[in-house]
Amino acid sequence: KMSILAFCLLIVQVGLGGLTVRHELSAWIVVAHLGTAMAFFAMLVTIATTALLGSEPGVRSHESRIVDGFWKLALLTLAATYALILIGGYVSATGAGLACPDWPLCYGRLLPSLQGPVAVHFYHRVVAAVVSLLIISTAVVAYRTQSRRPQLLAATAIAVGLLILQVILGALNVEYRLADPVTTAHLATAAALFATLVALVVLARHVPEVEPEWTAGSERSRRVARVLDYVALTKPRIMILLLVTTLAAMLIAAPGQVSPWVILATLVGGAMASGSASAINQLLERDIDALMARTRRRPVAAGRVQPPFAFAFATLLGFAAFAVLAAFVNLLSAVLAMGGLLFYVFVYTVWLKRLTPQNIVIGGAAGAVPPLVGWAAATGRIELPALILFLIVFLWTPPHFWALSLYRRDDYARAGLPMLPVVAGEDVTRRQIVLYTVGLVAVSLLLHPLGGLGRFYVVAAALAGGCFLLLAVGVWRQKTARSAVRLFGYSILYLGLLFGAMVLDRLLGVGPGA
Prior knowledge:
Elements: H1 2-22, H2 27-53, H3 64-93, H4 116-145, H5 150-175, H6 180-206, H7 219-233, H8 236-253, H9 260-284, H10 286-289, H11 307-328, H12 331-352, H13 359-367, H14 369-379, H15 384-407, H16 409-415, H17 420-423, H18 426-444, H19 447-451, H20 455-478, H21 481-507
Helix pairs in contact: 1-2, 2-3, 2-6, 3-4, 3-6, 4-5, 5-6, 5-11, 6-11, 8-9, 8-14, 8-21, 9-11, 9-12, 9-14, 11-12, 12-13, 12-14, 13-15, 14-15, 15-18, 15-21, 18-20, 20-21
């Protein structure tokens, strides 16, 4: 029934789309078009959430009055948010987005003269304040009455986080005079908040209660441990390596020309995107992580962080990453970061990881995106040197990871993952490591003729690459766990040395002919 209703809404949406063109973006038709679109979106979210829940019946609780009361509050909050989105559409359609040139006041007054576009803009702010109070109230009630349903607590946490982000972006819309990246982030966050509230209403009706889990230790020690678990969800070591490549790309692309604030915003947004991808990865792989000695102590696999809270944390980080990059850097860098995140989650983690031994080869493209983000942040475009940086990290990933998988082969076999040493054997893996290392070293040298880097970089890249190749050949010839561990450790150092040499070469002003 919901699918049929969604299809009907789609037909109405197509008709309204034609009317918006015929009537040259008449404000009320634009609002109707937006309202139908959001209703269609709500049906899709409802269908998806219901499908994920399966065929579980509605909640049956001895405190059904509290459950029904919370559901009604969530429904009211959703309805108010829907109305706010429609009012926002009317503000945009009537050109009232900048009717109040300052924020949070309007012409320096708490209550301006309510006439024309100023009235439209001001009423939008008033409704936004009411919706904010409703969302915060819903979250407070959830934490006071729904402690046995962690999915609801996670959904309300996402809603509050997105609300804070939305308020900030609303202020930035005024500050940046409706700049396209900021308005795009504002709209995307509004849609995400609306979807979260739709899911909350469905969950409040269908999710059963569970017994809360208690941990040992003092309250203070539990809080510290909880913070550390959420930090561990972001895989800080991987994050740091990705940020090194992002920063290096910015410094290479435009040495001395990028604002420190842009650099800071890019690194913050990149860290959030990386942390979000890592947290979702641990959430989706919690079953196989629990089977492997290397990963069984991860927060979700070990049960220290419940899946709904891990999802809420990852979701907020992802949306915050997009908003920070779009608002403070540029839209291209935000789109690239989100593309890398989605590729890592859906292509690598969901699709390839359990399907093919080529998972790390294809999935390595996600880890190669940060240099593109850095280059786009510095220049606003993607150029040939940026693609070479992408290719360097792409070719670096297989020998780096396969060295680890040789050492941890039994772990991957126990988890049933089709890693190359498990499926094709260790000899094939060692040969592939050597071949990819040869390709990596060759591509790294292309930055001299094609990327404008000079002889200092060429010498440094040749020396670092030569060491990498010697260790790769050692893995092939010695066939020992020690040689694989040695290559894995050096591969991390190699990437830092290589990108450091690029930056130093550029800062020294050594050109191709120097």
